[in-house]
Amino acid sequence: MRLKLLLFAAILIAAVSCSTQDDESVVSLPAPELVVSDVTDSSFKVSWKAIEGAEAYQYEFDGKTDVVTETELAFSGLEAGATYTLKVKAVSSATESEWAESTVTLNPKEEVPLEFNMEVQMDGFDLYVKTSPSDKDATYYLEPIPESMFLEAGSDPAVLFKKMMTDYAGFFGSVSAAYNKICMTGDKSLKYDISKYAERKFYVLIAGIDENLNVTSEVEYTEVDVDFPISDNQFKVDVVELIQNRIVVKVTPSNDDQYAIILQDTKTVDSMTQTQLRSFLSNLVNENNIVSGEMVKVYEKNIVPSHDFSILVFGWDKSFTTEISRTDIRTPDPEEVDELTFELSVDVKGPTTAVCKIVPSNAKASYFYDVVSASDWSEKYQSDPRVYIEQMASQSNWTVSRYLSLFGSVGTQQYTYGKSYLSPGSDFVLFAIGFQDNGEEVTYLEPQHMTFSTPAE
Predict the structure, then answer these.
(1) From the centroid of its chain, how far is CA 274?
(2) Burial class of residue 409 (count of CB atoms within 10 Å of its CB; 0-12, 13-18, 19+)
(3) Taking the CA atoms of the chain, what radius of gyration do you get in angstroms?
(4) Which of 75, 80, 263, 432 is deepest in the core (most CB within 10 A)?
(5) How many helices, marked H, and strands, marked E, lie in the chain?
(6) Residues 252-283: pLDDT tens digits?
(7) What is the rounded CA–CA span in Å between residue 347 and residue 357?
(8) How do residues 419-454 score in pLDDT, each as one tens digit?
(9) What is the mean pLDDT of the chain?
């Protein structure tokens, strides 16, 4: 049938051409009046009334030519939003019409919103999230966010979600690496442990994402109230003793509920948001800092002069039960002395173990000590602690002042050196040197040292 129509059209066109040449008085057929209908984002129809005397209708569309005898055409599988031109003319064996032309613009592609069908449920400190997206191939991400983070973003989920994507790209080193780590597809059933956050409310955020971490859908969220133990405990913190190398703190709670006491560097505390601080502290809580009732805590390890510390006290029962009470303190500056001597002693315990003790003549003055091999002492460091300090600081790209602020000492120190320092059957040097640091210049006092040997294995 198709071949017959094409042959028929060819005969008609040839006949019309010959007839026109032989008899110019032949009247042309009227052009069809095209009516476009049923326009969608991928199809449309066009129709016209039958033309008296027409034996067929020739049309041109999208670079193709064809012939039909019907008075209706339907086109499908087209590009959404594109504009197409259709031309139709009536033909007979004797004559033909002018082309009738119609331009059709298809509808834009209808965007079907991605639905996540998210369900959220709490059970103690466990938060359960189920999703069943309407498009199983869609890529998305979801995460429970504590209320403090939500408020920090101005309670704007879109702003917060975009920041999360930026943070993940930085954390994983690149956008592509982050996408591969966090991207989700299909149905999910997830469980989150939120015990490290003392927050009464969470927001579960979810949105579509592409491979560039762009947000491809509306950011949806579900608000969740958290039921966890709350204590009305309040804390009175008294600093009993504060010297260059020792801090003694007494905490008096208002009731017998369990709580935790943690001493931290103030700069570390100040660098974190409240949410980050809660997460950080929850990893530090252990049986050594969980107490109840009145408690006196003594801190001597890593306590140095001229340093800011924060005493953090908070209720704890598997998670935070109160807000964090914070008391900031600063250890006194070291005493300036013109002379500082040392009692040095070494108790060699074995081929790779020795206990070194340093007792300064002034317990409030700053000094530095360490152990090196006898060969390095004489050859590498020229039997001079100052050379050792300068080389160690240089290796870390620090100033001498910065190095001494981290590794300097005050008061009596006792340290056990092991196999990372000592080797069997070798000679070593324990040295100590006093110093004063005014922030601009480090002044050293007279050093002392002693040698000791480890036995062979």
Answers:
(1) 17
(2) buried
(3) 42
(4) 432
(5) 9, 28
(6) 999 999 999 999 999 999 999 877 888 899 88
(7) 8
(8) 999 999 999 999 999 999 987 899 999 999 999 999
(9) 90
